[in-house]
């Protein structure tokens, strides 16, 4: 029976001391993109900055601010006066001269009195709410950028790991021996050869899946940052977040959260709207000035007068708008209370999740990844010495690479949990003055 052989060079590869050393996490993107001095190394911070510069969501927020500013300017404007002219033939009839002419000039100016100040209070609260809404949208965009950015980091790292694993499997004893290869051989049973073939195909399929995920992640990243389709992408290395500060440190800053500030300003605007509705129950009184041409004492004379017109609330008391404004204020107050309750709950959950994920990541690295690496190295040595079979090597390899994959996934969960905590606490990543020290 013809035997399959394992060249000595491949056995040395399995048992080489340098191969058993810890494998660091390389900068995501380095495996496929390469590092060039001309390309930008994208970090989360400069990715967020670019999104803030280009995002249509922020342009919509800016448009809302402009609209609220226009409302504030309009709230101080007095109503326009009314000018009236009248021409008739009354004077010609009275003095017998006939003909017609202008007989009255009238000027009427509505007097807003208390209404303007109350309108301005509503407009100011709405403008403040628009500013806070822009800040909140910036936080939401930062969270979305973090999701896309870290997804690309994870996809790059997984693709690099899959290719590394495929390279090791491809250099298997099942490969054809080249001419001049080492004559030292090792017998492989048909079952072992088949197992290695299956392992090789599994590694190839894993690379295909990893590359597809990487391409999807790149598409999302380019779309969010408005990058050209052929632009090189080089990301900073995956970095675990720091241990968060105590929960109460974040709670003390929670009142300044933009989402809560939006609800608070909406409540203030609704409260001011009650006073504005009360001032608008009746139409503004009007000051009326007029000059008329009359036939008095046998002569045509000019008559000047002044008057005030006030609406009489016979049919419409104006109570409904006030009641509606009061109901709107009650709804805004309830929404504020709901937002405060949910914000505290979200903050506590985000803080707990990040703390536990960091602890879990440390445990996995200490109790699983490092032991799996040592077992893998010992198994390679045993396989090279002929003490262990291929299945033992395959099992050790699967355990080790699965542990590395899970470690990458936990790192990704940690950085996403840190992004959730920043969003829950209202801390933007691009404003270091608001960072909370652990």
Quaternary organisation of the protein chains:
single chain
Q: Strand share of the residues?
A: 5-15%
**Fourth CATH level, the homologous superfamily:** Outer membrane efflux proteins (OEP)
CATH structural fold name: Outer membrane efflux proteins (OEP)
State the strand order across the main sheet. Answer: 2-3-5-6
User: How many beta-strand runs?
Assistant: 6
Tell me, rounded to a whole number, the average pLDDT.
Answer: 82
CATH architecture call? Up-down Bundle
CATH class: Mainly Alpha
Tell me about the biggest sheet? 4 strands, antiparallel
Number of helices in the DSSP assignment = 10
Main structural class = alpha+beta
Helix content: 55-70%
Radius of gyration: 39 Å
Question: Can you offer a commentary on this structure?
Answer:
Helix content is 61%, strand content 10%. With 438 residues, it is an alpha+beta fold. It has one domain: Outer membrane efflux proteins (OEP) (Up-down Bundle), CATH 1.20.1600.10. The strands form two sheets. A four-stranded antiparallel beta sheet has the order 2-3-5-6. Strand 5 (286-296) and strand 6 (299-309) form a beta hairpin. Helix 1 (8-15) crosses helix 9 (319-384), helix 5 (115-170) packs antiparallel against helix 6 (190-225) and helix 8 (258-279) packs antiparallel against helix 9 (319-384). The radius of gyration is 39 Å and the shape is elongated.
């Amino acid at each position: 029976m013809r035997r399959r052989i394992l060249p000595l060079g491949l056995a040395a590869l399995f048992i080489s001391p340098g191969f058993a050393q810890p494998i660091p996490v390389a900068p995501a993107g380095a495996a496929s993109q390469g590092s060039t001095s001309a390309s930008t190394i994208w970090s989360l911070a400069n990715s967020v900055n670019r999104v803030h510069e280009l995002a249509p969501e922020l342009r919509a927020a800016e448009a809302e601010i402009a609209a609220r500013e226009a409302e504030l300017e309009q709230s101080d404007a007095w109503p326009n006066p009314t000018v009236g002219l009248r021409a008739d033939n009354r004077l010609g009839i009275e003095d017998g001269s006939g003909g017609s002419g202008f007989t009255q000039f009238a000027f009427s100016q509505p007097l807003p009195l208390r209404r303007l100040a109350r309108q301005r209070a509503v407009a100011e609260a709405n403008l403040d709410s628009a500013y806070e809404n822009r800040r909140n949208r910036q936080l939401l965009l930062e969270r979305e950028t973090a999701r896309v950015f870290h997804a690309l980091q994870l996809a790059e790292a997984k693709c690099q790991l899959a290719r590394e694993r495929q390279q090791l499997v491809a250099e298997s004893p099942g490969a054809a021996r080249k001419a001049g290869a080492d004559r030292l051989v090792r017998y492989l049973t048909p079952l072992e050869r088949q197992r290695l073939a299956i392992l090789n195909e599994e590694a190839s399929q894993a690379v295909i899946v990893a590359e597809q995920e990487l391409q999807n992640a790149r598409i999302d990243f380019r779309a969010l940052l408005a990058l050209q389709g052929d632009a090189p992408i080089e990301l900073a290395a995956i970095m675990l977040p720091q241990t968060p500060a105590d929960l109460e440190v974040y709670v003390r800053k929670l009142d300044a959260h933009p989402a809560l500030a939006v609800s608070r300003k909406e409540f203030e605007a609704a409260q001011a709207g009650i006073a504005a509705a009360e001032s608008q129950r009746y139409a503004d009184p009007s000051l009326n000035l007029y000059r008329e041409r009359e036939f008095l004492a046998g002569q045509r004379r000019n008559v000047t007068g002044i008057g005030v017109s006030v609406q009489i609330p016979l049919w419409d008391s104006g109570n409904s708008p006030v009641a509606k404004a009061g109901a709107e204020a009650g709804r805004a107050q309830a929404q504020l209370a709901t937002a405060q309750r949910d914000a505290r709950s979200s903050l506590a959950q985000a803080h707990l999740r990040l703390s536990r994920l960091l602890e879990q990541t440390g445990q996995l690295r200490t109790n699983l990844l490092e032991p799996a690496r040592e077992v893998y190295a010992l198994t390679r040595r045993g396989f090279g010495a002929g003490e262990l079979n291929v299945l033992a090597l395959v099992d050790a390899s699967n355990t080790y690479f699965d542990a590395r994959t899970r470690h990458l996934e936990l790192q990704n969960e940690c950085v996403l949990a840190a992004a959730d905590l920043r969003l829950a606490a209202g801390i933007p990543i691009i404003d270091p003055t608001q960072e909370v020290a652990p």
